[in-house]
Amino acid sequence: MTIRVLVxxxxxxxxxxxxxxxxxxxxxxxxxxxADGDEAVRLARELRPDVVLxxxxxxxxxxxxxxxxxxEVSPGSRVLILTTFDLDEYAFAGLHAGAxxxxxxxxxxxxxxxxxxxxxxxxxVVSPRIxxxxxxxxxxxLPDGSGGARAVRSERDERLARLSAREREVLVQxxxxxxxxxxxxxxxxxxxxxxxxxxxxxxxxxxxxxxxxVVFAYxxxxxxxx
Length: 226
What we know:
Elements: E1 3-8, H1 12-23, E2 28-34, H2 37-47, E3 51-55, H3 63-73, E4 78-83, H4 88-97, E5 101-104, H5 109-120, E6 125-126, H6 128-138, H7 147-160, H8 165-175, H9 180-187, H10 191-205, H11 210-219
Parallel strand pairs: 1-2, 1-3, 3-4, 4-5, 5-6
Helix pairs in contact: 2-3, 3-4, 8-10, 8-11, 9-10
């Protein structure tokens, strides 16, 4: 399968560089370029790319707002945010908007290509440091003993009932930040089996990707912050 990639960045030289790297891959093809957020949303609606490489700071509609709009008009497209700026608010806002990954532009080409493949396959790509800070940021918002929080937890519990015992075990490990390889070693499963379980978990819980699964695991109290 060829992964169709849309590149959104306001710098023409960077768009050209990304396209050159993508064209050299036998399993990838650049299908379009956008210089701002509005153009990225329009092209995503028209071209239905598998993955969108999205810059954050662009004129007009920025990458965060463009991501929010894009996942609505082209739900099959996955967004991988690339930015020069290692700032929490960009990572958190982008993931909340629906992005499936967050990487810095100084990421090595081979790491970027791996991230594109992972995101296209339905996984999420976020550096461990960002993931830890994301989970730390969740702590003040976790359910407590209030009535509203109990209602939220009850709704989560109803969805948890859709999972098998093994799927719950896998979800717990996902919530702890383990990779598929680490989960396979922990639960003594084949990595392909872990991926199958994760796919069923996302489908049953109506979640978009691994990041949403992590948030769900914390909000449902399957996993507690250390």
